[in-house]
Amino acid sequence: MPVNEAGVLNNTMITLNPTCTSIWKCYQKPHTMQEVIDEMIHSYFGNKTDIAKDICRFTSEALYYGLLKEVD
């Protein structure tokens, strides 16, 4: 995933693991974080709390680095 906008990750290439790729695909259309959490809990086996924490961390970092944008 290339990152072209100015900032901390200017002209950087990021490689996502399979789980992060699934989260990223969910965000290709506007979704709330809770919708993504629900979809990932449905798609993956594991501790629901851990899944939610991982999605929250991914989302927070993606927003911080400008990879995702919050919309109304």
What do you see in this structure?
With 72 residues, the protein is mostly helical. The chain contains three helices and two strands, in the order E-E-H-H-H. Helix 2 packs across helix 3 (48-64). It is globular.
The major sheet is characterized as: 2 strands, antiparallel
Q: What's the number of extended β-strand segments?
A: 2
Q: Into which percent range does the helicity of residues fall?
A: 40-55%
Order of helices and strands: EEHHH
Cα-atom radius of gyration? 13 Å
Give the helix tally. 3
Low-confidence parts, pLDDT < 50 over ≥5 residues?
Answer: none
Secondary-structure-derived class: mainly alpha
Strand coverage percent: 5-15%
The strands making up the biggest β-sheet line up spatially as 1-2
Q: Distance N terminus to C terminus?
A: 25 Å
Q: Give average pLDDT, whole number.
A: 85
Give me the oligomer status. single chain
List the topology elements.
Layout: E1 2-3, E2 12-13, H1 18-26, H2 33-43, H3 48-64
Antiparallel strand pairs: 1-2
